[in-house]
Amino acid sequence: MTLQHQTPLNGENPIENSAPPLDNNVLTVSRPREQVDRQRIDEYAELKRIVKQHGLLDKQPAYYTYKILSTVGLLTLSLTVLALVDTLWVQLINAGFLAIIFAQTGFIGHDAAHRQIFRSARNNELTGLIIGFVLALDRSWWVDKHNRHHNNPNNVALDPDADLPILALTKDQALKKRGLYRFIVKYQAPFFYPMLLFEGLGLRLAGIIFLLTHKIKYPVLEPMLIIGHFAVYFGLLFSLLSTGHALLFFIVHQAVFGLIVGSAFAPNHKGMLVVDQDEEIDFFRRQVLTSRNMRAHPITDFWFGGLNYQIEHHLFPNMPRNNLKEAQKITKSFCSDHCIPYYETGVVQSQIEILQYLHEESSPLRAAKG
């Protein structure tokens, strides 16, 4: 059993800086409960008590009312431009604008899945289903995948985000790739951003495959929402634009959407601690050490939908997004007091670290003959 701590290659000290899970109120550990260090459980309980004392787990109806209404307003604006303007360059800009709106809508859906928005589980679920229709993303697939990720971040055997066919997060994963996947992984660093252009389409495809192969909560409604999305989406495009313009709009919209979503999720864990399946590490340290924060800024907070506070999100998955910044101050200080490494860096540096990390982990393939 080994812990592979991927220290950022720029020489920054992870102890000075840090990262986020879904509806996960139950403390989980990787070893039998009777063997767990009681002090480490108490550390997380103490931090959570402080956070609750500050009211940071309280619902934020005013914030989410603003967030939802403003996003609906921007969506309405984009659709109005789509309907009234007949100039290609304007529509291509609008396609990129709509991609940003889709990404913001996805972040709201992410918050609903974590039950950050409403006290009622049913209202959060309804919100998630509506957003599933808007984006053509299956809610059952997303919740299943994301819960497994939050429970076991960067666990190469248990985290679905740490076992991807076209990426290798460890040298061992790289050496196991075959065929086309092996070639892609061999040059995964330069291929990384071009691949993100297809992320949106990949998410839809994964959701559809899940619908066809798994038992889901709403076996009639969920497929109908996906079908309904495609009917409305392509119906609007091909009825309001010429065929050529509609195809260009689709390409730009989906590529920009994939790039935004992929670049928002990539910095959170890639290049941080990688955990073996049977590794003994408590919940608190597992969430902090496997995550990377990006420094707060109004633009960063908007663009990444609060996921730049990845550590706090993973420690308190049902915390409303607008409270994460305040929670970071408490968490960062708490980790410092308890000598727990906490890593935070800038947006640009996080992207550099990801590329360096992917390049290093794929190096055995470039060194191998044939």
Task: Walk me through the structure.
This protein has about 375 residues and is mainly α. The chain has one domain. The radius of gyration is 21 Å and the shape is globular. The N terminus is likely disordered. The chain contains 17 helices and four strands. The strands form two sheets. A two-stranded antiparallel ribbon has the order 1-2.
User: Helical segment tally?
Assistant: 17
Biggest pleated sheet: 2 strands, antiparallel
The whole-number mean of residue pLDDT values reads 89
Shape: globular
The value of Rg in angstroms is 21 Å
Uncertain residue segments: 1-33
Count of spatially separate domains: 1
Class from secondary-structure proportions: mainly alpha
How much of the sequence lies in strands comes to under 5%
Helix content: 55-70%
Q: What is the ordering of alpha helices and beta strands?
A: EHHHHHHHHHHHEHEHHHEHH
Largest beta sheet: what is the strand line-up?
Answer: 1-2
Number of strands: 4
Alpha-carbon distance between the two ends: 31 Å
